[in-house]
Amino acid sequence: MTEEAVCWKCGASLADVPRPFGRRAVCPACRAELHVCRMCRHHDTAKAKQCRERAAEEVGDKTRANFCEWFQVAGGPASAPDQDAAATARAALDDLFGG
Predict the structure, then answer these.
(1) Is there a cis peptide before residue 20, judged by omega within 30 degrees of 0?
(2) Of residues 29, 2, 24, the one with CA closest to residue 14
(3) The model's pTM
(4) How far is residue 34's CA from residue 66's CA, in Å, rounded to a whole number?
(5) What DSSP character marks residue 2?
(6) How far apart are CA 71 and CA 19, in angstroms?
């Protein structure tokens, strides 16, 4: 069973967005571009070029639409929405220093 994909930015369901995502596909809720590295099953921040696919060309902005031929929509938790970086960093500091 394939998990339902959600927008990388707002977390909205993408069940009604036709597959495969075209380069111009956008989230119906927040209008974020969907054919982006952050929505791909190959995206992995721990890997070189942040991609598990070695043959893929490097993409500079992982949140902008691209022409990658290796793109495959990730579903479920792998597509969790973006969190505010400042809030995440502050929470980590609070945990570390007990603030």
Answers:
(1) yes
(2) 29
(3) 0.73
(4) 9
(5) P
(6) 12
**Phi and psi, residue 40, nearest 5°:** -95, 145
Residue 43 half-sphere exposure, CB side, CA atoms within 13 Å?
23
Residue type, 33: E
- Predicted local distance difference test score (pLDDT) of residue 44: 94
Rounded Cα gap, residues 87 and 91, in angstroms:
6
Structure tokens at 95: 């945990």
Q: Helix, strand, coil: what percent of the chain each, to 5?
A: 25, 10, 70
Tens of pLDDT along 61-79? Answer: 999 999 999 999 987 544 3
